[in-house]
Specification:
mainly alpha; single chain; 8 helices
Length: about 350
């Protein structure tokens, strides 16, 4: 299963409490106006980014999404230029420099780190460990932005204290939407990783079956069963996200299927391969004996073997057909639920 992760990147930009100083036209006229000039530039940057996040979740038009990402980058550049053009406030460059450091961090992450994460996306599909590393890289990237955000917040408060600016702590609509998106991503990733772990193991099981490698089948079947049981236990502890249990329930259905596949259905497949191997040995022995030397017992044993293998083939084909149909339904249900869940809970935002 392919996971589209670009919409969950960099969600830490301005999700904290916004600081609203008194407004004024000339940034140099008062410390409050100076703070507002910097805050306004950063807010425009974050509006463009939130619009990109919203489009990523709600639109299927890749060109539109990529265009909005380019616009978000452009807004970071504009924000940086705007703040650079501000002079230090009465010789005090602390707030301006803190803001520039923060915006430069955003630019670095959205270009260099973003490219690295996107390059890892295909690699992440190769194993659970790599997918987990992929998600952890995104989390670490967001943590880096959180730290930068906190430093900026501290710089603003220090500046306000130094110049006796009364601050009003209030989350804006933008801040609330970005915080909601961050919470959504953490919840989604937790459930997705449980699904991916079993889904990936199921793919490995399919490869082992195609190879008729009974040892690998048993090893993979055992791992799939363990991961499905562990995942179901974790899902039982998760609450519905904003009263929406759909993602958890869809994951439960998938993991219940994988558990049944591992415990009940796969042993039928293994049993067939063993029967097939035994029949091939019986047939080879029969073919090696001249017809005039075959006894009635040989014939009876061989005919019974033919009947048994034919019955086993029918059961094997039915098992494969049932697994194929169930797997397709499970994957479709997960994909549909995943898309609808993200679409329902990612805030809509337009600049």
């Amino acid at each position: 299963m392919k996971k589209l992760l670009t919409s969950s990147l960099l969600l830490s930009i301005i999700i904290c409490t916004l600081i609203k100083p008194a407004r004024a036209q000339d940034p140099s006229s008062s410390p409050g106006a100076y703070m507002n000039a910097i805050s306004s530039a950063e807010t425009e940057m974050n509006k463009a980014y939130m619009a990109y996040i919203s489009a990523s979740a709600h639109s299927r038009r890749k060109k539109k999404i990529e265009k909005m990402r380019d616009q978000a980058v452009d807004n970071i550049v504009v924000c940086q230029a705007t703040i650079k053009n501000l002079p230090p406030f009465k010789g005090d460059n602390s707030l301006r420099q803190s803001s520039l450091n923060y915006v430069q961090l955003c630019y670095k992450i959205f270009n260099e780190d973003y490219a690295h994460i996107v390059n890892m996306e295909d690699i992440a599909e190769r194993s659970y460990d790599e997918m987990q590393a992929y998600l952890l890289l995104q989390e670490a990237t967001n943590d880096t932005l959180q730290v930068g955000n906190q430093r900026m917040d501290k710089a603003e408060r220090s500046f306000a204290t130094k110049y006796n600016v009364n601050l009003i702590d209030e989350k804006s609509e933008l801040g609330q939407k970005m915080e909601a998106t961050g919470n959504l991503t953490k919840y989604y990733d937790k459930v997705y990783l449980l699904f991916f772990k079993c889904n990936w193991e199921d793919n490995q099981l399919g490869d082992a079956v195609n190879q008729k490698n009974v040892t690998k089948i048993e090893q993979t079947r055992s791992a799939l069963d363990k991961y499905a049981i562990q995942g179901l236990a974790i899902l039982d502890t998760l609450r519905a996200f904003e009263n929406d249990p759909s993602l958890v329930e869809s994951c439960k259905q998938a993991l219940a299927f994988y558990k049944t596949e591992a415990e009940t259905e796969t042993p039928k497949v293994t049993d067939f391969f063993l029967k097939e191997e035994n029949f091939n040995k019986l047939k080879a022995t029969m073919d090696a004996k001249p017809a005039n030397q075959r006894t009635q017992q040989d014939m009876d044993s061989y005919n019974k073997g033919v009947n048994d293998i034919n019955a086993a083939v029918n059961e094997y084909n039915q098992t494969n057909n049932d697994l194929y149909n169930s797997r397709n339904q499970i994957n479709k249900n997960w994909s549909d639920t995943e898309r609808n869940f993200l679409d329902a809970h990612t805030p809509h935002y337009k600049m």
